[in-house]
Amino acid sequence: MEDFNENNEVISGEETVVPETKETPVNESPEIQQDVAFDETAENSDTPESAGLNDTKPDYSYGGVTPDYAAAHFNKINYTDQKPISDYSHFGKGLKIFCAALAVVILLVGVCAGGYFLGRGSNKANFYRNDVKLNLSAKPKSGEGMTAAEVYNELNESIVGIRVYNSNGAFDASGVIYTEDGYVITNDHIYSSVAAPKFKIYTFDGKEYAAEYVAGDTVSDLAVLKIKDSSGFKVPEFGDSNELVCGENVFAVGRPNDASDETSITAGIISLTSRRVKSKTNYASRLIQTDSAINPGSSGGALVNMYGQVIGITSSKLSGENYDRIGFAIPTVTVKRVVDQLISSGKVTDRAKLGITYTEINSIVKELENRATTGLLVASVSSDSDLYGKVSKDDIITHINGIEITNDDMVLDIIESSKAGDTIKVTVLSPSGEETEISAKLGANIGESSFSLDESKADNSSGSDKLPDEQPGGGTFDFPFGD
Question: Which of 72, 228, 422, 452 has an alpha carbon 20 to 30 Å from 375's alpha carbon atom?
Fold first, then answer.
């Protein structure tokens, strides 16, 4: 039987799994894996091989002797009787016609190429817009809130089903309408197992739309799709996740199991307003914990409060026979920061990183290893970190901005509240006992997306049909459960 201690370390029987060396911003927590339902319905086709042709040359030899008819013959010409050409006018006229024709061809090619790239640029401009900004609404100060039926009616038109597919099969997920003209928020992991994915969107009224990938981010597990050539979609109200309290009633609204099915709703409470959970990308994010049921295909759906406000995007669930009703959602404060940048820039540009790998020295490790202090034991420093050349292996970072570091969650909180380019003060204790304070500029943790047109880069693990306990380290985090 597995359990977690207060530092989110896995305890198996009586043997405690000591956290391994980690990379900032990273925290050791149970692993998150992807969730989506896979349907193998298509067969691969064989590609015919092309055959080459060998060039041959005639052989005129016979018994090693070349016959006379194969020899070269030259006719003598008397050039003394030839008159030199003095009138070049007809040659100049032909040259002018040729140059004019060539100029016309070049002009036509230039116009066509310019139109093509202009069209591509216009299409990209439709994707990346600076005018899309999410406003988070405050929670109403009075009122008893809505019933579950009222919440469902309020959100139904804003929740969509998403089918991610290629010739090898399909995955189903959920999404939330972000703008009236068809931007949709979902999770980045939903297409990680599908090379060169295509997208279909299913709305509340039974309509089906083609959609295109805009951008994604593995660190936050957020992604944006754009419904093609349509508008008039209902945008829900987004609430401020910083106003959540433990025990608050919430609902998970999505399209579990089948993207083309009707939207469903499950009820629960806020179990924790913020818990650091480690994903498969080795990044520990702060997520909302809820006991609302999150089922296969719920990835990218909405976590909603009693006032009909979306306060999170559902993403994961703790699975395994030893766990029950432990689900997670990405808070809207993270959604706002990430999604707005994905739409405006195609990536997250201001997320900060310190650029080191480390081992946490908490109070227990300090006692057992007889360390001088708590903090972060430096294992390595990235070459693009501002600490490169200033901090060495086995140094201990004891304070950041004057705050004593007793666990690595504190460091992650400081970094996440900062932006790339911000300067922090780092206090470092060397193995010899010398203490110094260093100014360090935070780098940009831009991140990548799971989206890929290369079949060799598809992460097939997220499409596994194994049960959670059949996977290594059973009882791991699924994205969300529906392997």
Answer: 422
Dist. CA 179–CA 130, nearest whole Å: 13
**Separation between Cα atoms, residue 335 and residue 188, nearest integer Å:** 12
| Residue 180 contacts residue 190 (beta carbons within 8 Å) | no
Enter the tokens of residue 218. Answer: 């593995």
* Total residues found in the chain within this entry: 483
Active site residues: 189, 221, 299
DSSP state of 460: G
Neighbouring C-alpha atoms within 13 Å toward the C-beta of 183: 23
Query: 455 - beta bridge partners?
Result: none
Predicted TM-score of the model (pTM): 0.71
What is the mean pLDDT for each group of 10 consecutive residues in the chain (483 residues)? 46 42 48 43 42 44 44 44 51 64 69 49 58 88 89 97 94 96 95 94 96 95 95 96 96 92 95 86 85 88 97 85 84 95 93 94 96 96 95 96 94 93 96 96 93 70 34 30 29
In the chain, the amino acid numbered 322 is: N
* Sign of the dihedral through C-alpha 315, 282, 168, 209: positive
Residue 42's pLDDT is 38
Distance CA 434, CA 429 (A): 6
Write down the pLDDT at residue 294. 85
Give one DSSP letter per residue of 147-188, joined into a string.
Answer: -HHHHHHHHGGGEEEEEEEETTEEEEEEEEE-STT-EEEE-G
Kindly list the distances between the CA atom of residue 76 and the CA atoms of 69, 73, 79, 225, in Å, as whole numbers in the listed order: 18, 10, 9, 78
CA distance 417 to 42: 46
DSSP H helical ranges for 11-147: 89-127
Domains of the chain in sequence order = 26-38+148-349 (2.40.10.120), 351-446 (2.30.42.10)
pLDDT attached to residue 447: 85
Sign, CA torsion 233/237/242/246: negative
Total Cβ atoms within 10 A of residue 189: 31
Nearest Cα neighbor of 297 from 479, 153, 477 is 479
